[in-house]
Amino acid sequence: MNLTLNCIEKIENLENCENLNKLDFTANFIGDLRCISHLRNNKFLRTLYLTGNPCIKYNLYQDYVINNLPQLTELDGQKIEKTE
User: Fold this and answer.
1) Which residue of 47, 55, 73, 83 has the smallest Cβ count within 10 Å?
2) Residue 59 and residue 9: Cα distance in Å, rounded?
3) Which residue from 55, 48, 59 is spatially nearest to 28, judged by alpha carbons?
């Protein structure tokens, strides 16, 4: 699902998208990283893009996302290694 450039401020109401496997929030206004918790139940979600959002400026941004969404295999166009 491509939601690029939509002035989105938080991630919500995607919990029941059972077959969602790619989500692109590039260049929006997502500032609160905690809202990614709404994606935990999307067990088929493998790819997430948050590039261009204020939340990527947080220290340990990638670690936080990977720890909260362990089903991901790619974040912002980069493969996630199992050691991460």
Assistant:
1) 83
2) 19
3) 55
